[in-house]
Design goal:
By secondary structure, this protein is an alpha/beta fold. It is built from 22 helices and 31 strands. The chain folds into four domains: 176 residues, 3-Layer(bba) Sandwich (FAD/NAD(P)-binding domain), CATH 3.50.50.60; 145 residues, FAD/NAD(P)-binding domain, CATH 3.50.50; 121 residues, PurM-like, N-terminal domain (60s Ribosomal Protein L30, Chain: A, 2-Layer Sandwich); 195 residues, Phosphoribosyl-aminoimidazole Synthetase, Chain A, domain 2 (Alpha-Beta Complex), CATH 3.90.650. α1 runs parallel beside α3.
Length: 707
């Protein structure tokens, strides 16, 4: 159960989050969740600039994940598929569900697909914007060719005109067509369209081939009408002036997916922004059972239409009702100033009051104890032998392998955090060549009321089960605790999950170990590294949200099928697999060092730095000096790069891309090599024959050799 759920990361919700980040005292108490399919949202006013190439996507995006964290709100990245108003439940992708007490809808809209254009080969609605941006990028290389098919934009509104003019700036020579059915709506812009060499055609003249972008009005997500909410003909939810949905006191709606029944206004970012103060105050009031305020939106809104394709200087129009001024350069500069000011509000870290400020203490596997602390503690306890055994999984009997792992919540989404923690715990077994059978969980929940705890527990258990079930494994049971630490903000960051995981090795076969390296072995890596740096940067808003999103997609991919494939190959190529480990808290070099120490003396690793897969954006962040809180203690592994008086370095680095004098790049590489990994890759030492076979099939990458 979540007290308040914000469904969708539109402009209204983004501004509500900013308000709570700046004024934490106004944030309602209890658990608050933001749900959106993407971790960032484009500011609508800058979308034409992104399409024209004036802005890049990052410049025009609001990082919802970081903004939510600053506001003390958990972020759940998932697609909303359905809504059950009677059960107060949102149904999400991956068979997830989320219950709420109060729901706020700010879902934006999508462009309808006219029936007559269904058969068009490449016909994409302009909203949602993700596929549109992908299409434009794909067409960039094509547009430079004389043989490029015409690019058609269907629509008679301002958005269609603005997109056509923006694309002309992006593609100076390509044939661009505006397909309209209402000439009067575009009368102010005919001269500019003609001057920009944009053809105005009817739908009957639309070519059979070539991409088509649909700007054919807007429709609210279809599940809203299917849920039984009262909607208008465009599927927009009808609300009271208080922004409460008609007939549902605990549901609010704003932005393009909603319409005030008594004061209807067309969908526009202007009204979404203007609705924010009313929405925020009424959400806060409803959570505290205070009276709500009504809102009468202004009758008209100023619309600024950009014209970036002018030959000499960019310009823009200003529209107020039937009045049109421009195009003038000063209006363009005015619009740019307004747009940059709006997005700038979300680009800097918002200074929060004491008590809501997050400390720079990394989570996930970066919360491990430093190696020196661990080893010294074991030695003083008389358990030094445990520290001398580098293997993380233990053989219980002839075939049962067991391991344990866990850490503080890496992400604020309880389901995703449990899912990632489970996969991370399973990786110790995968590295031993075992298939997971079952697990038991220890779950510590924050000290909140029973309803919230129940919801957090349900989502946590669902995440654990989802990770296990895809491996045909099951959760046997476990134990729950209530934390005695001060509550975290968001509340879900107070969850800690640990698991004991059991698996099976083929009978009469010893588990793969970290020791066993042999001269001539090739060293393979199953996925990228750099998650520690990336999430450390995300905590302070310095990471690109797209990079974090891509890393999470990789981290959510279970590696159990890789192990199954290895076991199959092992049966055909006996003794081809010599050593294996998973790369986790001590970083790549730390764990490779364990492999060297556990193998025959005198072996050396030669690593090809250029071949090591690294998460996008990580290298640039490392060059800025960003690292996890565990990284400083992990740097003791750098000693393995230094030769001794009687022997060369046991790990040697080589690169064809990085100049030996480029100390900044080399320092960043060394930092990434000791970066702690959550749901990190498997590192496999095997024969050259097997290595070649694995790399050709993917996703394995050869990063070095043993000599």
């Amino acid at each position: 159960m979540s007290g308040l759920v914000l469904a969708g990361g539109g402009h209204s919700h983004a501004l509500v989050l900013r308000r709570w980040a700046m004024q934490p005292s106004k944030r309602p108490k209890g658990r608050i969740s933001l749900v959106d399919q993407r971790s960032c949202t484009l500011y609508s006013g800058m979308v034409p600039g992104v399409l024209s190439g004036i802005y890049n996507e990052t410049e025009a995006s609001i990082d919802l994940r970081h903004l939510a964290t600053q506001a003390g709100v958990e972020f759940i990245q998932a697609k909303i598929e359905n809504l059950d108003c009677k059960k107060n439940t949102l149904y999400l992708s991956q068979n997830r569900s989320l219950r709420y007490e109060i729901l706020s809808l700010n879902l934006g809209c999508q462009s309808p697909h006219p029936v007559e254009l269904i058969n068009q080969k490449c016909c994409i609605p302009v909203k949602p914007l993700g596929p549109t941006l992908n299409l434009i990028e794909e067409e960039d290389t094509i547009s430079a060719k004389l043989s490029a098919k015409p690019f058609s934009v269907v629509g008679s509104g301002l958005a269609a005109v603005e997109i056509c003019l923006g694309l002309r700036k992006r593609w100076p020579t390509r044939c661009i067509q505006l397909v309209i059915h209402n000439v009067k709506r575009t009368r102010y812009f005919h001269k500019a369209l003609h001057k920009a060499n944009i053809q105005i055609i009817s739908q009957e003249q639309l070519p059979e081939e070539g991409p088509v972008l649909l700007c054919t009005g807007s429709m609210a997500p279809s599940f809203l009408r299917a849920s039984g909410l009262l909607c208008n003909s465009a599927g927009r939810v009808r609300t009271e002036p208080t922004l409460q949905v008609l007939g549902h006191r605990n549901i609010f709606a704003s932005g393009d997916c909603a319409i005030i029944d008594r004061h209807p206004r067309p969908p526009s970012g202007v009204w979404a922004v203007r609705a924010t103060p009313v929405l925020a105050r009424n959400l806060e009031a409803e959570c505290c059972k205070r009276p709500l305020q009504g809102w009468t939106p202004q009758r008209r809104a100023l619309q600024l239409v950009s014209h970036p394709s002018s030959e000499k200087q960019a310009s823009a129009w200003a529209l107020w009702g039937n009045l049109c001024i421009g195009p003038y350069p000063w209006i363009w500069h005015w619009k740019q100033r307004l747009d940059r000011h709006f997005i700038a509000m979300f680009k800097t870290n918002i200074k929060m009051s004491r008590g809501h400020e997050s400390t720079m203490a990394c989570r996930g596997c970066a919360a491990k104890l430093p190696a020196s602390t661990l080893l010294n503690g074991l030695r003083e306890a008389g358990l030094a032998t445990l520290g001398n055994d580098p293997n993380d999984a233990v053989l219980i009997n002839d075939s049962v392998v067991q391991s344990v792992d866990g850490f503080p919540a890496l992400v604020s989404d309880p389901w995703l955090n449990a899912y990632l923690t489970t996969l991370h715990a399973c990786s110790d077994l995968w590295a031993s060549g075992a298939e997971v059978d079952n697990a038991q969980a220890l779950i510590t929940l924050p000290a909140v009321d029973a309803k919230l705890q129940q919801g957090l527990l349900k989502e946590t258990l669902s995440g654990i089960q989802a990770a296990l079930e895809q491996q045909d494994a099951c959760l046997l049971g476990g134990h729950t605790l209530e934390s005695r630490d001060p509550s975290n903000v968001p509340i879900s960051l107070g969850i800690q999950v640990s698991l004991v995981v059991n698996g099976q090795r083929p009978p009469d076969q010893q588990p793969w170990s970290k020791g066993g390296l042999q001269a001539g072995d090739v060293l393979l890596l199953s996925r990228a590294i750099g998650s520690g740096v990336l999430f450390a940067a995300a905590m302070t808003g310095q990471a690109n949200s797209r990079d974090v999103e891509q890393a999470l997609v990789s981290m959510q991919t279970s590696q159990h099928k890789l192990v199954q494939h290895l076991l199959h190959l092992e049966a055909m190529l006996p003794n081809a697999i010599h050593a294996c480990t998973d790369i986790t808290g001590f970083g790549l070099i730390g764990h490779l060092g364990e492999m060297i120490d556990a193998s025959e003396p005198g072996l050396r690793l030669s690593l090809d730095v250029d071949a090591i897969p690294i998460y996008k954006g990580t290298l640039a962040l490392a060059k800025q000096g960003i690292c996890s809180t565990l990284a400083p203690s992990n740097r003791m592994a750098w000693s393995r790069f230094d030769p001794r008086a009687d022997a060369p370095a046991c790990i040697q680095l080589a690169s064809q891309r990085i100049n030996n004098h480029d100390q900044t790049s080399w320092q960043a590489i060394r930092e990434i090599l000791v970066d702690p990994q959550t749901c990190g890759p498997l590192a496999l030492a095997c024969s050259a024959e097997l290595g070649e076979q694995l790399c050709s099939a993917g996703p394995w990458t050869q990063i070095g050799i043993v000599s």
